[in-house]
Amino acid sequence: MQDLSNEKTVQMVKRVASVVVTVVIMIALRYSTLITESDPAVFSVTLLGLMLVLSFNIGKLLSRLNLPTLTIYLITGILCGPFVLGFLSSATIDNLKFIDTLALGLIAFIAGGELRVKELLRLKKVLVSISLMETLVVFIFCAVGFITITPLLPFTQSQTFFLNSLIALIMAALLVANSPAVTIGIIGEYKSNGVLTETILGSVIFKDIIVIVLFATVTTFVMISLDSTAEWSMMVFIKTIGYEIGMSIVAGLGVGFLVYLYIRFIGEQPVLFVIGAAFMSYEIARQFHLEVLLVGVSAGFAVQNFTKQGEALVEHVEESLPIVYPIFFAIAGAKINLPLMLELWYLALFLTVIRVLGIYVGVRKGARLASAPESVQKYAWMGFVSQAGVALGLATIVNNKFPEWGGYLQTILLSVIGINQLVGPILLQRALDKAGEISKPIPQSSILN
Predict the structure, then answer these.
(1) What secondary structure letter does DSSP report for 440?
(2) Which terminus of the chain is more solvent-facing, meaning fewer CB atoms within 10 Å of its CB: N or C?
(3) Mean of the pLDDT values across residues 225-252?
């Protein structure tokens, strides 16, 4: 027993030393212009490796607090970002965009791989009821809530009520989005399994499709409403939405077929091939204006349900996540604009509260309508709070389509996402623990108890 205690102490000392050495190196790089001036790409990749080491070791050191590791990674990123210690500048973060590409592709693969037709059919009533009701209630709550604060916003004060209503619809569509990345990350970290886990995971992924359709519908409606020369064309509208969703699924099936062929007939270094396939999925989506998550989800779904290689795909993706997650979520934390959050904290907090209230009402109502198990009715809403990549991507589209005021919405949304990213993982962990579905034990000393 004494030897075990000494071993843990030595392990902790080693991790502390690793953190200290890493920080010292990052400080040296921060104030040295030799590498940055000679080759910014080398500098960015160097920081990438250091951030991976730092995030991983801090996550291990703070595991006694029993905060979700993803939250610790986010906090690490905030501290190392351009607004606190400055280790990661905005330019460096831009140079590391390929990490987002890789992570989103892998997250989509594993999300699709976790969708098993038999389980979906068993839970179809609950999934559909919760997803639709939560989307509807959150959309209404956020649209009405945003309209009430338009007199406080500089870019809406002088606008007509009609225009403000259109802007509110766009904002509500953005706030409906969730984060499959966080959901999958927390469930994987705590090896959670059970009806609540299946319901939250299935609903969040299924909701991605609903969010895409809702966003396309709202933006098309707003664009037509703002264009006095435009005429409503249902056929054009259907073609636009049908292309994005249909072609995303077709592309995903193609990628899934390639993954199946490789795992089935070659099998050499499958993790590296899956990583390459993740990049390929993203590039296909970017080139043909498709939804990257839907491409990856379709690929994972196809391999899981139409071949015998589904479990192998999930296993290979999971092997890569311990390397990808620390840096992906640390960079996500570094992107959070702290000065902006402080400036807009009251608006962000108001919209966050309205959104969470809508989630609570919508999920509980949907669960009751479907006669879901008690654990789902009581705790499922906690799994819908996190926001990340999907919402950020949609906000960028809004900024491009509506430059007059889209940037303001993007700014406000970033502040809301910052709050949701810190609170959401903790709530999801709490829900899974309360439902008794966490395999990794949570100590009684946890700050969550």
Answers:
(1) S
(2) N
(3) 72
Token duo for residue 383 = 């799994």
**What's CA 214's distance to the chain center, in Å?**
18
C-alpha count within 13 angstroms, C-beta hemisphere, residue 294? 22
Q: What is the pLDDT of residue 443?
A: 44
Long-range contacts of 319-324 (CB under 8 A, 24+ apart): 319/271, 320/106, 320/271, 320/274, 320/275, 321/106, 321/110, 321/185, 321/188, 323/52, 324/99, 324/102, 324/103, 324/106
How far apart are the C-alpha atoms of 101 and 90, rounded to whole Å? 17
Rounded to whole angstroms, the Cα distance separating 53 from 25 reads: 12
CATH number assigned to the domain with residue range 101-434, chosen from the 4 options 1.20.1530.20, 1.25.40.10, 1.10.10.10, 3.30.565.10: 1.20.1530.20
List of residues 6+ apart from 210 with CB closer than 8 A: 131, 132, 135
Taking 3-state DSSP, the helix, strand and coil percentages for the chain, each rounded to the nearest 5, stand at 80, 0, 20
Report in angstroms the alpha-carbon separations of 42 from 88, 95, 97, 220, 330.
14, 10, 14, 42, 19
160: amino acid identity, one letter: T
Residue 251 CA to residue 260 CA, distance in Å, equals 14
Domain boundaries, the chain: 2-95, 101-434
Are 166 and 176 in contact by the 8 Å Cβ rule? The answer is: no
In angstroms, rounded to a whole number, what is the distance separating the alpha carbons of residues 118 and 130? 19
Give the chain's mean pLDDT.
81
Q: And the tokens for 52?
A: 């991976």
pLDDT number for residue 124 = 83
444 has pLDDT over 50: no
pLDDT score at 155: 74
User: Sign of dihedral through CA atoms 281, 206, 171, 244?
Assistant: positive
pTM above 0.85, yes or no: no
pLDDT in tens, 316-329: 887 877 788 788 87
Rounded Cα–Cα distance for residues 167 and 348 (Å) = 16
